[in-house]
Amino acid sequence: MALRAFLSFAKFSTFFQGGRQIDPSAHTIKSHGATLARNHIHDWLILVLLMVIEVVLNIIHPFHRFVGRDMMEDLKYPMKGNTVPAWSVPLYAVLLPITVFICFYLRRRDVYDLHHSVLGLLFAVLITGVLTDSIKDAVGRPRPDFFWRCFPDGVAVYDKLGGVVCHGEASDIKEGHKSFPSGHTSWSFAGLGFLSLYLCGKIKVFDRKGHIAKLCIVFFPLLLACLVGISRVDDYWHHWQDVFAGGLLGLVVATFCYSQFFPPPYNDDGWGPYAYFVAMEESRVIANVNRDSAAVQDTEDRRVTNQVANRRNGDHLFTPFTYLSPTLEAMEMGQK
């Protein structure tokens, strides 16, 4: 019986809506989506700019740091493929969170929540990407498998200063100087970290009721991001410092971007975006104004009705207010 009550509609609504009564048709894509997008047109244009910068950073060559003979001992790990392919990162770091956002939108019909969560996620991922690739290109740290990228035949060649003279594939050498920080890890923690914060607010993890099981839902995206980072070390594409720095970078950026649109998850209003509460407050103010206007109009209508009745009874001389309306006078004369 307890489980059945928990799964009831009322319980489910309270669980995901923070105990508040929500009008499911108040703010939908159809009613407010276009206006909301126009209000944030500059944000979307900045996203496009970030995408262009990200493409440029991947095209240019990184700094080729000096790599000497004595440094090769830590750079002779074998070249392996990626356990987590690069093409899969946008799927789980961007599309998966957006799918979750859409599910909540279908439940609550809150376009502010959908728009701001998607916008915040894209900003988190793209800002993280730009920062990560900027640092990669500037630092130029060699990957753990740099030896085999530089000397695919195993024959090491050095100049008179002891620096490497690579004769491998140009693309492999270019990629070999992009070890710090880990891009897979930073993107994973940016996207999945944002999703974790989003879920933390939606299911009210910090509602002071002691439901520790909710933490499992929140920690699951972070666990996935951690496993991605571990795979980068296991594949010998990154040193552990690269993964640690990438994870920290992605999580910090995700937290900043989330905080732009949503209250902290531990806040009583952490289940919804700031814009939603602003819209609700504006709606309440308008409703109060309309209600007050209706009350004033009703009072005025009753006063006029009383005056007309007094005129009909010949008591207009004692009426403290006169209502000189030609239309009303004509109507009275016609009725008499």
TrEMBL record:
Keyword tags: Hydrolase, Membrane, Transmembrane, Transmembrane helix
UniProt record similarity statement: Belongs to the PA-phosphatase related phosphoesterase family.
Domain Phosphatidic acid phosphatase type 2/haloperoxidase residues, every copy: 118-258
Gene behind this protein: LOC101508974
BP term (GO), one: phospholipid metabolic process
Entry protein name: Lipid phosphate phosphatase 2-like isoform X1
Subcellular localization, as worded in the UniProt entry: Membrane
GO terms for cellular component: membrane
Transmembrane domains' residue ranges: 44-64, 84-106, 118-135, 184-200, 212-231, 243-261
Membrane-related topology note: Multi-pass membrane protein
Listed GO MF terms: phosphatidate phosphatase activity
InterPro entries linked: PAP-like, PAP2/HPO, PAP2/HPO_sf
Species this chain originates from: Cicer arietinum
Keyword Transmembrane helix: yes
SMART domains: acidPPc (SM00014)
Domain of life: Eukaryota
